[in-house]
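Hi U.,

Before I forget, here's the chain from the pilot set. I'm dumping it here mostly so it's searchable later in email.
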Amino acid sequence: MFKVENITKKYGTRTVLDDVSLTFKTGQITSLVGANGAGKSTLLSIMARFLKQDSGNVFFEERNMASFKNLEIAKRVASLRQSNSFNIRITVRETVAFGRFPHSKGRLKKADEDIIDKSLEYMAITPMQDKFIDQLSGGERQRVFIAMILAQDTDHILLDEPLNNLDMKQSASIMRNLRNIVDETKKTIIIVVHDINCASCYSEEIVALKNGKLMLQATPEEFMQEGVIKEIFDVDCKIAEVDGNKICVYHNCDKCSDEADKPVELLHSHRCSSCAEKPL
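Structure:
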């Protein structure tokens, strides 16, 4: 279990995180949401020990994260940064195999190979395992990097905006795969996402930050309220229900607010029929 206490981080005179304290539950997906600059990625980077906080503490399994040796934490927590690349020509399988390094030190055994196979399978990339990374699309590469994190086989996984630059189909596919992993293995995934509809549909809990402050830690049902969205993102919206999931429909046209009451094609494609304004 992760617990952060009174975390503050500044860049010069700008406060990025302002005395943030919260506890993350285990065995579920928790989504970190908020506008650009809210502090989401900074908080995750501090939890992953990529970045040092100015004050406060991060606890993992009731131990201060600062007390763990690098190898020790690598066997317990797997973290994916926003930007990932390799400067060497390497295959998909070889890339995923890097996730086993904390356990194998590069000397792969059958148990390691089995975990690599399972990670490739989870992300539906087994057929491309012999391709080189530079032959893949951006979405395919992202699946490979997530598979590498899965191959690390930790109980806790931290993902910083893994859906960046992906289209809707790729994003939905990755979120479904992560959901299946948690349902099957009871791993804990903490993920930074911009799409609050993805957070609503695939998470048990949503943590919202604004201007470096913790605004809300709630279930999707509690979070997906028009007033809550307005307060956190400063945008007007309508909340619709599709297949039992709360969906936020946000647009900038006062004249067509009733359009948002028509739930289906609206998810990412709502267009105002009255004034032809595009959604935000």
